[in-house]
Amino acid sequence: MKINGVSYRSVWVDPNDHRTVCIFDQTRLPFSLDILHLTECAQVAHAITSMQVRGAPLIGAVAAYGLALALMKDASDEAMERDAAMLASTRPTAINLRWAIERMLKYLRPVSPQKRVEAAYKEAARICDEDVACNEAIGRHGLELIRKLAAERTSDRPINILTHCNAGWIATVDWGTALAPIYMAHDEGLPVHVWVDETRPRNQGAGLTAWELGSHGVPHTVIVDNAGGHLMQHGKVDIVIVGTDRVTTRGDVANKIGTYLKALAAHDNEVPFWVALPSTTIDWQVEDGLHDIPIEERSATEVTMLTGQTASGAMETIRITPPASPAANPAFDVTPARLVTGLITERGRCKATAEGLLSLFPERQA
Fold first, then answer.
1. Selecting from 3.50.50.60, 1.20.120.420, 3.40.50.720, 1.10.3720.10, what CATH number does the domain 2-129 have?
2. What does the H/E/C string look like for 208-254?
3. Engineered SS bond to 166: which of 122, 178, 208, 277, CB 3.0-4.6 Å?
4. Is residue 166 annotated as involved in ligand binding?
5. Binding site annotation covers 256?
6. Model confidence pLDDT, tens digit, residues 174-204
7. Is 56 annotated as a binding residue?
C-alpha cells in the first residue's frame, strides 16, 4: 500500500543493513510516521507488548524476524528454544504469533547453528511474502460481497461498510484482511463509504483505520463505538466486515473488545456480519472460543489515560477518570459462530461452522 505515493510494507529489512528489521511505530500514528530500526530480539518483544506493532498477522511476521535477530547473538539449540518461548509469550490471544514461532522452529531445528541466521531471515521473508499473497486473495473473495451489494442498490447512495478496530495493511504485512476488499472495491470505482469505530481504549479505528483509509482516498467517517447499532437500526449499514485474532474450529471469533456487541446489533437488524482472516488465524486445536481462548488483560492505564495531539501540535497524555477509580481492560471478546454470517479466507468464503471451515480446508479432516 502507499503513503503519500510511496509503497510500503508494514515490516521490511533495511536495504542498507540486511540484518536490521524496520517497522512503523504504530503508537505514534496518525500524528507522526516514525520508523523503528530493530536490531535485537528484546526490541522486537518490546515492540509487540507495547503495541508499537500490532495486528495478528503482522505480529507473527515481526516475531519471525525477532527470532532471526536472536540467533545473531546465540544460535545454539538452547538459546533458540528459550528466545522462541519468550517471543511466543508476548501476546497470548493472537494465534498467528504462536503459528509463526512454531513454523520457524520446525524449519530451523534441523539446520546447523552456523547456518541458522541466514536460514531464519529467509524463512521470515517467506512468511511475509505468503501473508501478502494471502491477504490479496482475501480481498478478492471479499470484493465479491461488495460487488453484489453494489448490483442490488436501488439508489445512488454509497455502500456503507462498518468495521471495528484496525484490520488494514498496517495490521498485516500488506493489504490487510477486513480492509482489503474495501481497498479493492474503491480502486474498482465502487461507491464505498466506511463507518470507522473509534475502538476504545487504544482507538485503533480512529487513529489507524481512519489514517489508512484517508491515505488511500477511501471515503470514511469516524464514529464512537456505541453508534454502530443506531446506524444499523436506521438502515445506514449494509455490511459489517471485521478482522480477528483467533477463530476456533466451529467458527467462534476472538477480536478486539466490542466486536461481540457489533455482531449482536447486526444480528438484530439483519445486517450481514463477515469476518476476514488468513488460515493462520484458525486455531485447529480449540473448539469453544468462549471458554478456551485466553483473553489478554491489558494495563488499566489504557482506560484511565488518553494520549492525543493538542491544538498546538504537542503530544500529551491526560487522565480521563477519577484518580481513585480502578479500571478493567480486557483487550478482546469472543463472538459466537451463530452471530457470524460467514468467514472470508484466502481460499474463499464459508459459513462459520466446522463443516464450513472443513469445506475450504479438507486436509484438516480428522
1. 1.20.120.420
2. HHHHHHHHHCCCEEEECHHHHHHHHHCCCCCEEEECCCEECCCCCEE
3. 208
4. no
5. yes
6. 999 999 999 999 999 999 999 999 999 999 9
7. yes
Rounded distance between C-alpha atoms, residue 254 and residue 245, angstroms? 6
pLDDT at 366 over 80: no
pLDDT beyond 90 at 226: yes
Q: What is the chain's mean pLDDT, rounded?
A: 95
Q: What are the structural domain ranges in the chain?
A: 2-129, 155-364
> What's the predicted TM-score (pTM) here?
0.92
Residue 234 phi, psi dihedral angles, 5° rounding: -100, 15
Name the pairing type of β-strands 239-242 and 159-163: parallel
- Residues carrying an active site annotation: 245
255 annotated as a binding-site residue: yes
Cell of 191: 461507491
- Superfamily the domain 155-364 falls into: Translation initiation factor eif-2b; domain 2 (3.40.50.10470)
- Check residue 282 and give its pLDDT: 96
Is residue 45 a known part of a binding site? no
Gyration radius (Cα) of the chain, Å: 20
DSSP structural state of residue 27: T
